[in-house]
Amino acid sequence: MQKIGVFVCWCGSNIAGTVDVHAVAETLKKEPGVVFSTDYQYMCSEAGQNLIKDSIKEYGLTGVVICSCSPRMHENTFRKAAQSVGLNPYMVEVANIREQCSWIHKDMATATEKAVILGRAAIAKVHLNAPLTAGESPVVKRALVIGGGIAGIQTALDIAEAGFEVDIVEKSPTIGGKMAQIDKTFPTLDCAACILTPKMVEAAQQEKIKIYSYSEVDEVKGFVGNFSVKIRRKARYVNEDICTGCGVCTEKCPQKKVPNEFNLGMDNRRAIYIPFAQAVPKVATIDPNYCTMLKTGKCGVCSKVCTAKAIDYTQKDEFVEAQYGAIVVATGFNPISLEKYDEFAYSQSPDVVTSLEYERLMNAAGPTSGTLLRPSDLTHPKTIVFVQCVGSRCDGGDKGKPYCSKVCCMYTAKHAMLTREKYPDTDVYVFYIDVRTPGKNFDEFYRRAVEDYGVHYIKGMVGKVVPQDGKLKVQASDLLSNEQLHIDADMVVLAAAIEPDKTARPLATMLTASMDTNDFFTEAHPKLRPVESPTAGVFLSGMCQGPKDIPETVSQASAAAAKVIGLLAKDKLTCNPCVAHSDEQLCNGCSSCEKVCPYGAITYQDKEFRMPNRTVAVRRVASVNPAVCQGCGACTVACPSGAMDLNGFSNRQIMAEVDAICK
Amino acid sequence: MENKQQLTEQILRMSGVNARKCMRCGKCTATCPSFDEMEYHPHQFVYMVEKGDIEPLMKSESLYTCLTCFACVERCPRNVEPAKLVEAVRLAVIREQGANHLKPQDLPELWDEDLPQQAIVSAFRKYSK
After folding, report:
1. Whole-number Cα distances in Å, A85 to A54, A135, A573, A606, A618
2. In which band, very low, low, confident or very high, does the pLDDT at B102 lie, cut at 50, 70 and 90?
3. What is the location of CATH 3.30.70.3270 in chain A?
4. What is the CATH number of domain A142-234+317-332+501-568?
5. For chain B, which domains are there?
6. Does A389 touch chain B (CB under 8 A)?
7. What ipTM score was computed for the predicted complex, to two decimals?
8. Which region holds residue A575: left if phi is over 0, alpha if psi is between -120 and 50, else beta?
9. A477 closest CB neighbour out of B26, B71, B79
10. pLDDT at B126
11. CB A462 to CB B29 under 8 A?
């Protein structure tokens, strides 16, 4: 028989306001095995913990029940307290009488009755608790960063600086991501390339960083501290180690009509290309969808002009298998497709552009070499209409994204300001629903656009855009003057909502990391653990977790790096001892558990069993890898023969709790 | 006051519209082809229903200048469906007038060979209880 102590917490008035804590303690005193029962104002306080410790020593308690808040809140606190006086921490149970009782009840009598029942269930469980010992697993001192945008680069640099090896996997031929495409950054109007490219070069030169460009993650196995990752290095048909990045091939290639994705298809590149001048690594890549040599076997111009002999048409995808202690997701974002917004005529007129396209039109390395010309006839636009919230803040579903994309207000103010600065004869209209500028120096920036640069900010929305006679007929509302406006514009710029990159969803599946309905990765805790995924060892950096601007992205990237460094600095990790195990005598080898295990922790092996009359039988039985098992319990439910059981949450313990509740 | 609230609830129930979903972007008004003919523009219409000012709407000519083209419904980012509110207020006016409900047996007398079927269905919707 256990000697159990019961500790009922008031949580100030949080619990005591609705539950008669004294009555609960007195009632539970009569339960079998309970040798001590008391209530106290704050069990989690130093004094409260000392009360628990002293009682364990004084009464020789073998089990402890704390009636308090959710175990997610303070289970760890109480387990540590118990451990400090020599009681196995897994002999402590928490009955949640706050979130699941006092907070949801109004009537004191009912709440008190329920608190007693919950306490009784915990006592019944403790009777069957057994001391558990946590195992240990080693930590591979190398991190993987998936995505080579500013988020990934910053995370990798910070981890490398702390002395750990980092690999960056980037799916495109160069690192740099979206920031490389941006012209200027708000609110300081720094040139984006000027502050990004030194970081790209630093990442390339940092000895601890290895960049796998034009590569993708194919498979992830393992668990925190010991992930095994298969990386596909896509064939670029150019030997990366030999190519000098001289660019002769990209000038001589006869296939000139390939839409240039770096300029969002607004100009063309060759079939062999280097995305942009400051690309890292600066090596050429052959686009197999357009290369005549790869498609028909007739051409080979690039191979002939390459003095370094780097072209290799026979290259195949290669696979690298590597071990990592931690994985950082930094997969970034894209603007949404605007095809379904017919009213803005995006597909009908080249002069209706997205903000990212406008960014390229303003950029010196863009399709117009930095002179603002409208795409249809390459003339200077005189009237430009900016439309905010295109596809953001919608009702969800077909209409668009339900969230605010957060960056559009600021980059539109930037575009409007830069346009007026460079071309003061241009009329610039911004149609807004709300102008959202929470950030350091952000509102001042927006006010400058209005006050110093004379940008016309109009509270209202554009209803439709009709291309007619070389103009864009814009029909819009001005809600403050209650008018409908008709503007003949030369260009319309749409602030398209942003969405997570399409590769994020399959990656989340590989990592068993959770996502929200918008495909943003979810945090372990939205406030207190914002850069960690709920899946241990997986960290989040940048837009993949939610819309954010560059300063926020960099902060989060460094925060994720700090968490990774904290993990990699450990030699061993303590495992959760509450894992599943199979009773081999009962297991019939049916594979049900293996199929439901979300972590791939269960394998089967043929084992010899002694049978009657000295015979030996070979049977197929399940075995659980305790380092991989997360203790979710899915297998224990699926097992038809009751062979699977969870340490600390055994079937007997659960049934004892249910019995106690139903008594 | 109570009557005002009842009327608002009736309009919301008849239309199935949740006026609180409106984020006041004004896209309905921006897109409306009969803007110039209207006393109350679509975004005002939604706002007035939200506030419970149904009576001025019932008296307004705006009710009949709405073409029911559903452009506002199509383009509203929040799925508020302003045109359905207009239709509901029209119905409320008709119901208030009373006595002009259509019965199936009255139909043959009014029958016109060229009348499109849609118009008959819509007439039932408007004129029958």
Report:
1. 8, 21, 23, 44, 46
2. low
3. 580-647
4. 3.50.50.60
5. 2-98 (1.10.1060.10), 101-129 (no CATH)
6. yes
7. 0.82
8. beta
9. B26
10. 62
11. no
